[in-house]
Amino acid sequence: LVYTTLDGRGSALIRYRTGDLIEGGITWDRCPGCGRRLPRLSSLVRRVSNIKSLDLSKIKGTYVNFNSLTELLEAESEIEEWQVVISKPDNDPFEVDELTLHVALSPNSDFKSLYDRIQKRAKTSAEIQFNTIKVHNLDEMLKRVGMETETKEKRILDNRPIQQSPTEKIGE
Fold it and tell me: Residue 160 contacts by C-beta under 8 Å, 6 or more apart in sequence?
């Protein structure tokens, strides 16, 4: 659903737009703020393209919902910018997956408590833990995620080498 002002003041149009999802849709319940019974939209808006591009992936033998992981990191007020990198040690396709979280922290953040909190929440919501959490300055992180230089920010990078199937190896 999309809320559009018709002329910049007062008049509004609520319409559907391809690619937007609103959890809960329109509600006619009494507004907790003003008490009126007017149609209201839920504030939980998601882009369909984000959901499709961040589907389930197997990490360390566990299927991980990257949407849950994204929500967890976006909700953390001490994190200014973030990026998750999935890789293998020495690019060996038979090694165990490594999960690295790169972050830029807001000023006066306590890294130790943030580290513990992130690891605990990641374990609870996504059943994973980060091997490493690396802190960068904000400019570095903006470059890493491609903010304003890429068409879409690179939040989750899968740098694992592609493993060939046994039949492909035989035919080489």
Answer: 86, 87, 88, 93, 97
In sequence order, the β-bridge partners of residue 27 are: 40
Q: What are phi and psi of 41, to 5 degrees?
A: -100, 145
Alpha-carbon distance of 44 to 4, in angstroms, equals 17
Q: Which residue has the tokens 């953040």?
A: 109
pTM of the predicted model as reported, rounded to 2 decimal places: 0.63
To the nearest whole percent, how much of the chain has pLDDT over 90? 24
Spatial distance between the Cα atoms of 78 and 109, rounded to a whole number of angstroms: 6
- Which of 1, 28, 24, 22 has the alpha carbon at shortest distance from 12? 1
Indicate the pairing of strand 98-105 with strand 132-136. parallel
Measure Cα distances from 116 to 64, 90, 112, 155, 169 in Å.
20, 27, 6, 21, 43
